[in-house]
Every structure is written in C-alpha cells, then in structure tokens.
Protein: Phosphotransferase
Amino acid sequence: MASRATPRRQPSRKGSMADVPKDLLGEIQRLEELFTVDTAKLKAITDHFVSELAKGLSKEGGSIPMNPTWCMGYPTGHEQGTFLALDMGGTNLRVCEINLPEEVGEFDIIQSKYRMPEELKTGTGEELWGYVADCLQQFIEYHHEGENLDNLPLGFTFSYPATQEYINHGVLQRWTKGFDISGVEGEDVVPQFEAALKERGLPIKLTALINDTTGTLIASNYTDQEMRIGCIFGTGCNAAYMEHCGEVGKLAHMNLDPDQEIAINCEWGAFDNEHQVLPRTPYDVIIDKDSPRPGQQTFEKMIAGLYLGELFRLVLVDLHSKADVKIFEGQDISKLQKPYSLDASVLSDIENDPYENLQETHDAFKSHLSIECTKPELELIRRLTELIGTRSARLSACGVAAICKKKGYKTAHVGADGSVFNKYPHFKARGAQALKEILDWEKDREGKRLGRGHDPVEILPAEDGSGVGAALIAALTLKRVQEGNVVGVRNPDGMLHGVPKAKS
Structure:
C-alpha cells in the first residue's frame, strides 16, 4: 500500500492542473505536503492516542478527560415510557418528546428546534439558562396545552466537557465550540438550569445529564447491538464507549464491580494538547492562538466543522499576501479577511461542484466574497478543500482506531453523527480508507474468518443520540434507582417523586 493515500481525484478533473501557472502549482504542492497525513503518521498518532486514553482513565489523569458518565451498561430494547430530551449543541437547541413503546427497539418522537443566538455564546449563565427554559416552556405549551403535568423526566444532552460525580450533576470543565459564557465554568450546571425551570414553574425534573456522544452510543446500540462506539463529527468532535470499571483508575476508591460497564465520555478534542504527534500546520497554530482557549482542544481544532472554513480562509489570505504568488490580483479581499466568515458548508459546496470549470465555485466566490476567480485559482481552491477535508477524515479515524485497539475490538460498528459526518463529501469513504491503513486490514483480512462482507470496523450513521439516547439514559437511570442501584445518582428519592414508574 502506498504511504500517501490521498483519494484519487475524479476522472473528469484529470489534466486540470495543466494550465496552472508555476507559482500556484508550487503553492499547491506545498499545501499537499503540509496537509497530507500518510499511513506511518496515522499509525503513530493512533498509538499515542491509545496511551493517552489509558492515561485519561488513570487516577493521575491526562489531557483527554475520559469522563465517567454514570450511564451503566447498554439498553435492553425493552425500555418503556415517555421522556423529554433537551439537546444544547453549538448551533441549535432542540427539544424532543420521546415515547418508548412496548415494541423492542422502537420509538416515537416529536421535536422542535431553536437557534442559539450568537450573543448568548458570550453572555452570562443566567441569560443562557433563561433562554433554554423559555424554549422548553414554548414546547410544553404548544404540545401539552391545558394538560396537568408533573415532574416530566428529562434527559439533558449537554455537549461540553463536564465532570460528573452523579448522572444528574455536571461541573463544566471548560466551554468549547466557540462558547465563552461567564459564570458557568467550574460550576455545577444542574442547579443553574433547575433554577430557571423553577422560576417559570415548569413541571420538569432533570433525570440525566449526558453528552451527545454518550447518547449516540446508547441510541445506536438500542437498534444495533454491534455498536461499540458513539462519535460526533460536527461543530466539535468527540467519542464515547463502554469501559469496565476495573480499567478506570480514577474510580478505584469507589470499589465498584470491576466487570461493571460504564460509559466513558472521552472528550478527545483535547488529544495532544502537548503537541507531541499531530502534524500541525502554521494555519493550525494561528487558529489555536486566536481562539478563546489557546492551548486547548488541539485535535478538535484540526478536524471539527467549526474550524474547517477558517483553515481554508487563512490559507487563501496568506497566499494573497505573498508577493511571489499571484492570486486574486488587484481585487478587494476585505470580505475574505473577516475571521470565521466561512464555515464548513462552503468547503462542502466546493467539493460538490459538479462542473468541469468549477462554475458553482466561481459564482459563490463572486456573490459572497466579491472575488472573481480565474480558472487556475479555482483549481487551487478545489484542491485546498480536498486537502483540508481529507485530513479531517483521516485524523478522525485515528481516534476510532485507538478505542478499537485499546478494547481489542476486531469487529465493531461505530455510530457517528454530526454535520461533517453526514454532509461533508467523501468524509465516510476517506475515514474508512484511513481505518484500513491503520489497522492493516488489507494485509491480514480473510473474508471467511471475519464472516461479515464489510469492513471489520464500520462507521455508520448513528441513531438520534441527543434525543432518543437522552431519553433512553433517563429511562435506564430511573430503572436502576427503582431497583435500588443508586451508584452515580444524586438524591435518588427526590428524583422519583411524581414520576410514573418505568416499565422494563
């Protein structure tokens, strides 16, 4: 296998570099060297990732938080009841009502989506929780007008690094995804949230605070028992998987059953904050330096949707500034100079441009940035998007491979969600190719031995983790408490007050 495994360009684009002048061709070659991650590097990153996962589980800890979630084990498929789910992501706020019927592995869902106002992201905690509670109030008034409700159990998907001593508790370690809200970091978010609910007289009881990756893992396993890892590749990036308590050194003082499984929210966006192994470019360094949290979330800043457009923008602005590179000559690039003015959807559209002359890309640059691109400039733009998108997918695969190696999974399904995974062109295929290279499937794979007919480890579209997963974890938590297992649950008696007994 060749060490450089950049996906082949489409046949229709062969020869497209023939008319590119030497200065731009030289820059394209430089960018290819900067952004291409070969097989040897993928393996080195994965091996370091494995050791960092283990370090995060230890009593001493490491850069990757590896947070125990107190979601203890997988669903059976027999969970029943009606639950609310709240998902606070980087872009939207979603409120769901999920009904788990008698049919195994089935669910019904109604939902409403609300935009997270930009001003909230740098506001106060009181403003944030007030807005969230207002959205919940709108949802309940719309779907349950005139009904007498009491203590509706809620699973809250809070997709930010949080330390959890209990499943209905969570201390925010740090904001990610561009948030920088005062008065929340280092605090338990649950009392703040509950105070906003109480102020509005809402009949809701927070039953479980979860991460979207944990929800993705649980929801995906609910419909496919081969699911072993839940991933998010969207505005941010993260993963969750089941670990035996005996492997979690930071929980040793609790004397838990070493064979009991507990979901671990990796928060792997923080991988390699020490800059030991990831191949950062000068543009990655700028993104980190200018971010609200320099030195943190190194892995995330190289692969997540929030940063892909900014990487692309920084490269183009840098090329324009070079005296010996002729790009966007004599044009006003002021719109391009605005930080974070381009998002990952711009790159997605460029890679999806079906025309040989890249007409859609030309028109988009003209209408949105007031830049008239030449044919050679369009070829550089297209190649740059391929390089950034491919690097994101290949680096993402390192985390998946690391969990598989740590757990000894020879075969597994991985449930993935998020805008980059679902919408970015070729992300799935590029990630699958990287997994093959890291895990050497083409060297030792025997179809009969594997008995599958697909890749041994497949990354598949996930079930709705932030909705269905949150509801399932709330159901599992109530069931555990009713059975007398209150490990990792705060004030269990209070939690059950007024809540219909969950069936199993």
